Amino acid sequence: MSAIKGKNNLIGASIPRIDSPAKVTGKALYAGDIILPGMLHGKILKSTKAHAKILNIDISRALALPGVKDVIVGKDTPCIKFGNWRLFPNTQDELPLAVDKVRYIGDEIAAVAAIDPDIAEEALSLIKVEYEELPAVFSIEDALAAGAPLIHDENKELKSNISLDRKIDVGDIESAFKTADYIREDTFVVHPHSHAYMEPCATLAETDSEGRVTIYTSTQTPYIVQCLLASTLGIPENHVRVMKPAVGGGFGGKMELRKWEFCAAFMSRRTGRPVRFVLSRQEELESGRRRHGMNLKSKVGFKKDGTLVAKDFEAYLNGGAYNSMGPTATFLCGNFGAMLYRYPIYHYRGYHVYTNLPPAGAMRGFGAPQAMFISESQMNMAAIDLGIDAIDLRIKNAMVTGDKIEGVTTISSAGFVESLEKVASETKWKEKKKNLPKNKGIGIGCYSFISGGVFNWFNTQYNFSACEVRAYDDGTAHLLTMSCDIGQGSDTVLRQILAADLGLAVNMIRLTAGDTAMTPKGDLGTWGSRVTLMNGNAILDASKKIKEQLAKMVSIKFNLNVIHDVAFGDGKVFAKANPKYGMTFGEAVTLWVKANRGEELIARGVYTPRDKGLTTPAYSFGAQVAEVDVDPDTGVVTVEKITTAHDCGTVINPLGVEGQLEGAIQMGIGYTLSEQFAMKNGKTLNTTFLDYKVPSAEDMPQIVSYKVDTYEKEGPFGAKEAGEGLAIPTAPAISDAVFQATGYRCKDLPITPEKILRSKGKI
Amino acid sequence: MPKVNVKLKVNGDPYEVAVNPSGTLVEVLREDLHLTGTKIGCQTGDCGACTVLVNGKSVCSCLTLAVEAQEKEIITIEGVGLSYDKLHPIQEAFINEGAIQCGYCTPGMVLSAKHLLDKNPNPSELQIRQALSGNLCRCTGYARIVKAIEVAGEKMKNPVKEK
What we know:
The complex is a heterodimer of chains A (about 775) and B (about 160). With about 775 residues, chain A is an alpha+beta fold.
């Protein structure tokens, strides 16, 4: 990692997280920690049937229970559908509470608010729901079979359980395959995966005397929650204030309006008392959002020398009962299928399929871990068949800076080849691969990821990212932004960016984040690795405006020649050529305020990616090598070492990026080896961490990482995505290593001892 | 069911609380004493977010009945460091080594680390990982948490005397 720090020694500085003292002392408040006087406790009744008509709901006994203050069912609400894809209202398929029909085990039916959680729980048991069961479908195959029940039969435009499809056609695929010397076609199945954020979701809502709602909620997207909560309540957006307290992880799982957010707000309006919902881990695992399981098919053609000629990719996503963020996953899966290598001809067909399972949603990597598990596995298999080393084959086809996917995207910076070369040399790849001891394996997987999305599915009327910067005469500044730190570290990185640009110390920047009543409209929140690039650019836009004003003050005061530039550093504003012509930041602000007859120095900054293609302004790249040991008797895989080289542009905070990388590897190991849902007739059977196996400290390998230097011209100080894309390469790398060790090639995640032993005929 | 009076000493302070016989220690800490630094991650003793020390031993407060803590000394995260200016070496190391991301597992991790280092000032990396195996983290991959505990252990053995 480069030791030279940029801009005022703050860009590239490993500053410890600004929120860590509060977190390490237990003082940081998460939504479930906040207590308001008179607060009621909410609980939600969920469907026990996978697919059924609701004939009747009897709430009378629950209402009569002493201590119960409110009970609501779907018909009590305004019955307004919602969903993140506002651009296509037809995709908005969820109601705050089910009205006529339930579509999965866990579909929310009724809610209770009571004076304590035990009474609320007891009240749930007193609600009687009469169902008429309907045939249910759980697999993609069954959902698409002739005569399958239509899960959303209320949407007359849908003729099947396919809720949405996506096509990409670049070039003539049939003629392209005729020119190939080697073609391989594979079918893969990838499984759902839980976010397993450590903080179960929680929400506290209160309502003022004029009916305005304030909610404190565990979310990564306050603006989205504000808009959708207002629309489902039938009140103006400005009557909803969403405040994001500390959030205990999100990974994509907290970026929609959730039912308990609606219920808390709705019941606080009805009762006039604050209402809090805190989910249990059981609820989270039983019916919470998850990564999409998919059926994937990919046909890829090469020339003898390894040059790629074409790829035809097809994905069926098991979306569960509602669209959630599935439409985006369907789009992105196709975009990621075209990434990493130069496919001159590329076709994609993606289908989002309704089933009677808990809905899948956005999750770290979002379409890419699935798309790249098959494509990276195919590269490894093709390398063997073509007799070319797997890293050499990748380098031959790797995307480089300036590459274009016609009509889709341009790669403005890429350190992919360098990443491949780095992991090859650092792991002694070729040498090790030739001399593998028995039961040991070494394998490779690679990734690329977006730095925020361009496609405006939320149909926001505002800029994609925005901030406000206020400069004060005491030499401090205040940054207001809707971007949310959910654990990834943006509160620290965004302050670093502003402090570096204004030449102030980081602790001279006050930050207000994620409060829709205070922070500028028009930031879509935290997802898709968008915050550093998009909000960072908005901050630099605002900072530039502040600096222009302060530069004027120095220029006037010292009668600077117009050719002089003004610099900002060490809390001072001064002529670059002669620092003695300068003053403190606070003095410059004081002068400006006086010159403007008492006005406050405030600037707004915005960023919207315009003319940046359809996908993203910038891509990260990286390569990862896994080394494993497989016990021949038990089939147990031990990951011994993971080596990564990655290109995330300029690193703003190396300590933060390293932590993201290590966490991504843990999540990747879980996805590959230990985490899977056990499902039976639509019911999730493993609803504790005893049975849903998140890797522990003992399961982690040695981790080595290298940063490849690039400068991303679209990003603030050259930065781009870091951390999310790293959830992608671990599965294909481990899978390849397991193949080297055992001869078992996984086409059906996760890799389990049972599958390995079965492949060897041992069971 | 009638409530039971329980006397607890939490972070050195005496408390007397009327609890449900089935109430857990974490409920008393969070809901009655408003010590919300102790987190609830699973309520089944699998994640360790609710770890506290009871008479010096680390326990899951979600699996401990409040009545079991009768007359016992409890240390929660609020009792580990006295203030932002007087942090415990484990807390300092967690901050400086980047061991914290979302922070939800952090209080439990710190208590498990304290339990380990109080008993074994020279743990090996494997011993640290074993000591943390009951505490799940989803953000960090544990690498920096392990490092922080190593650094804290060194510091606790060789405290720098204040000038």
